[in-house]
Design goal:
With 115 residues, this protein is mainly beta. The protein is built from no helices and nine strands. The strands form three sheets. A four-stranded antiparallel sheet has the order 4-5-6-7, with no helix packed on it. Strands 1-2-3 form a three-stranded antiparallel sheet, with no helix packed on it. Strands 8-9 form a two-stranded antiparallel sheet. The C terminus is likely disordered.
Length: 115
């Protein structure tokens, strides 16, 4: 559908962000969405074909790798908890394949790389 998503992260004044923005590729315009329930950085995010956004893992306030997943419902304009990752990870990617599959690719915890 020509959508991109930016979620969480860090900046000069905030070590963990709860901010989420949606990019409409055709217009080149970013739109603010509701804040994440849990601020995080080094997380993964993807937009799905059924107009949901998935944000997973990352590093939380204690710098630990998170297992939490949040799902954005575009009709409600709010986030809800999704199924947790089996292993906390950060610095990884999510790829949306079709309506029933979103894949997690690589990542790391504090001490080792996951694949």
């Amino acid at each position: 559908d020509g959508l991109g998503v930016g979620a969480g992260g860090t900046n000069d004044s905030h070590p963990y962000l709860d901010k989420v923005e949606l990019l409409e590729m055709e217009s080149g315009r970013w739109t603010d969405l509701a804040a994440l329930t849990h601020a995080r950085r080094s997380c993964a995010a993807t937009a799905t074909s059924n107009h949901q956004i998935v944000v997973a893992g990352g590093a939380g306030q204690q710098c630990s790798a998170l297992t939490t997943v949040e799902l954005y419902d575009s009709r409600e304009g709010s986030w809800r908890a999704g199924p947790s990752l089996n292993l906390g990870r950060r610095g990884f990617g999510l790829v949306h394949v079709d309506v029933s599959w979103t894949l997690s690719i690589l990542g790391y915890t504090i001490n080792f790389i996951i694949n």
